[in-house]
Write a structure and sequence with these properties.
The protein is α/β, with parallel strands linked by helices and about 260 residues long. About 45% of the residues lie in helices and about 15% in strands. It contains nine helices and seven strands, in the order αβαβαβαβαβαβαααβ. Strand 5, helix 6 and strand 6 form a beta-alpha-beta unit. The longest helix is centred in the middle third of the chain and has 29 residues. The termini are far apart.
Amino acid sequence: MDSLDSLFGLRGHIGIVTGASSGLGVECAHALALAGADVVLVARRVDRCEKFADELAKKYKVRAIGIGADVALDADLDRIMEISRAKLGDVDILVNNAGVSPTGRAENFKRESWDNAIAVNLTAPMMLSQRVARRLIETHKPGRIINMVSIYANVASSVYRLSAYCATKAGLANLTRQLAVEWAQYNILVNAIAPGWIPTEGTEGGMAKAGNKERMEMFTPMDRVGQPEELRGAVIFLASAAASYVTGTVLSVDGGYQSW
């Protein structure tokens, strides 16, 4: 690895990004395509995925496809794998980004909201990782799995009531470690990224409420919220040869939020 391209280039690799129609999923897809990987964009809003796939293909000269799917459904996960393989080839990078963050007082939190958070935030990453890993093991190929967790995998939220979100992200962080241990022998490296406060389509409304953004900045040592594109470097690093001896770690991109 004697050049930047050999360290960080992803040409010849194929990655899936879930939750890729908006927010941080868009940045994850940009990161993979920027480094040269072909990309499968997955979200329920298929029109957005397909339009975004066209944009990536033109901008970065890569192959990109959009697939409309609900990651909480096993049949849709099977379809994602089938279409990806048929159109692009075997996937060797997976970014489990899709997630939900229902809010509500813990004493009144509805069972259906709790179950849905577990299904999308925790079960879906396990089931899709399993499908990708099985194929990699079968074909004796290395791979990378990146799980999107959160600062709230490690700490509680003082801004929103997020019992289900915090619980599922903490579970996903430790699932990351367990999968890393089990799949290290196959050179399938499993890591996570824990973003801090970054404005996206899903968070801008909350940030706009009186005092919220100021509170977020006050508890962040860098004294500001992040920018979506600041996630790209972490994604490229963990997906690339530069991270060939990194597995089972949670990389925080949070402006120092968890360092107090």
